[in-house]
Amino acid sequence: MSETEPRTSAMEAPVVVASNRGPISYGRDERGRLVPRKGAGGLVTALSGVFFHDDATWVAAALSDEDVEIARGGRAVGAGPKQRVRFVDIPPDQFDLYYNEFANRVLWFVHHYMWDVPRTPVFGDQTRAAWEAYRGANRAFARELAKEAKRDPVYLIQDYHLTLVPRMLRELAPGARILHYSHTPFAGPQFLRILPTHIREEMIRGMAGADVLGFQSRAWVENFLLSARQVPDLHVDLRSGRVATEDHEAQVRAFPVAVNPHALREAAETPRAKEARREVDELRGDRKLILRVDRLEPSKNIMRGFLAYELFLKQHPDWRGKVTFLALLSPTREKLAEYQTYADECLSEAERINEEYGRKGWVPISVRIQEDFLYAVGAYGAYDALMVNAVFDGMNLVAMEGPLMNERHGALVLSTNAGAFRRIGRYALSTNPFDVQETADAILAGLEMPKDERQRRARGITRSVLAHTPETWLWNQLEGVDEVTRRAALTSRPPEAEERDLPRRAFDDEIGGDR
Ligand code: F6P
To answer: How far, in Å, CA of 13 to CA of 151, rounded?
Structure first.
């Protein structure tokens, strides 16, 4: 870009997305030809809209041998007329340390408060090795991304896997427009201090290298700002949500993700979803149905969900035999021992409850472990109560998808610690995810709620969910980048840190709605 030429708006600039898991990963068909397979996970679904963008490149880690082969050939693969995917080749041992040991076992655990603090974590030399691998992987991403810099794109860096990339990329391409988006919660400042100090500080400095830092909810924005305030050399303005170094300023904002109603409706029309619906209707019979749809993941709080249901059955014997609980759980991160143990514990708890309360013709809990999105969409139509009781969750798409597709005005039992609570919590039956009595009470309230009340709430959720789309989610972020770059062009130096003059009370209080 020449210095005199006005810069293209972020809305019109090429987009370069970076995430660990990409929109496609390659395998081979029976004839040995390369075939793309759609990447799994909420991030890919949320961002699939960028591929409607005129000019888009997606940079992701090579996850299969075929991806590695493509990466080593140094080429991008086409995903549309002007849409490409590039893979970053991270050697297997390094990938294991970066992804399993650091991103998942350290960062995912800290942001979801998943440690049993008197015992875990114990950070030692293995953590240092995992951290070095994480840094290396982030550097590899930054280098790959910098190759695109001459086209003056907007970089959309995704998630906790790539927290160091914004700063590393800025060092390689100083004028780059960079946004970092966290799909997860961001831990509160006290809990984040469990991380080794140098790691916590480098991670926050890394993120602060972006122009815009996006989170799912104001709660996570505020947690980030409070932690950034503890990092030497960073100046934080809590009120305006800015984090500045000597020569750079980042704007921190909430951009809650949205669901795509058209894609869901299309999915519901598939034979697989219809078959699932028939199966679930059969399972329910003339009973009420409680549904949960989750990854088999400790942060989803599956165990306490079962315990709350057991308490409900114990305290309300008249409901025994009149309700059934279907848990659709998709396997995830099976290499982590903690996940295996948690999965085993959840399953044996469900079995125990079934043995204790079940009787001929009635199984209280049915668990299906499968990665089957269409089955879940079919099941959404049939529930009377949907349980989303995550310990902590960035947003939680199920809480929004379920009510859109449900045909029975079912109630939503929703954790106050899910980002989605800020958007739709007032229409849900709220629950503190640790309080199984409160969750049991919410189950009862949901099942016994009068029809007009259920309708009012279900319509409220649908209205709120439909008011946002994946396209507006993306546009808002790009607009945010434009605002920041415009401001940066007007001021040659970052504004004075105002943080010490600001009243802190507002941020210690209960958090308000999303911006
Ligand atoms: O759901 C939160 C999330 O961080 C998504 O943004 C991302 O797709 C996923 O978790 C990562 O999961 P995995 O380890 O399976 O790639």
So the answer is: 8
Q: Which pair of structure tokens corresponds to residue 95? A: 């990938």
- The per-residue pLDDT for range 467-500, each reduced to its tens digit, is 999 889 999 999 999 999 888 888 755 545 444 3
CA 503 from chain center: how many Å?
31
Q: Give 131's contacts (C-beta < 8 A, 6+ positions apart).
A: 102, 196, 199
Q: How far is the CA of 333 from the centre of ligand 1 (A)?
A: 10
Q: Which of 108, 107, 179, 98 has its CA nearest to residue 139? A: 98
Residues 418 and 425: their CA atoms lie apart, in Å, by 9
Alpha carbon 237 to chain centroid distance? 26
Cβ neighbours around 278 below 10 Å, total: 11
Q: Is the CB of 184 under 6 A from ligand 1?
A: yes
3-state class percentages of the chain: helix first, strand second, coil last, to nearest 5: 50, 20, 35
Please tell me the distance from the alpha carbon of residue 149 to that of residue 469, in angstroms, as a whole number: 29
**Residue with the nearest Cα to atom 1 of ligand 1?**
42
Read off the tokens for 360: 């001929």
Residue nearest to atom 9 of ligand 1 (CA): 41
Q: What is the pTM of this model?
A: 0.92
**Other Cβ atoms closer than 10 A to 461:** 24
Q: Are 442 and 413 in contact (CB under 8 A)?
A: yes
- At 46-60, the pLDDT tens digits run 887 676 667 889 999
Q: Where would I find the H helices in 105-188? A: 109-111, 125-146, 165-172
Q: In what order do the strands lie in the sheet with 429-431?
A: 365-369, 323-330, 288-295, 385-388, 411-415, 429-431
Q: How far is the CA of 320 from the centre of ligand 1 (A)?
A: 37
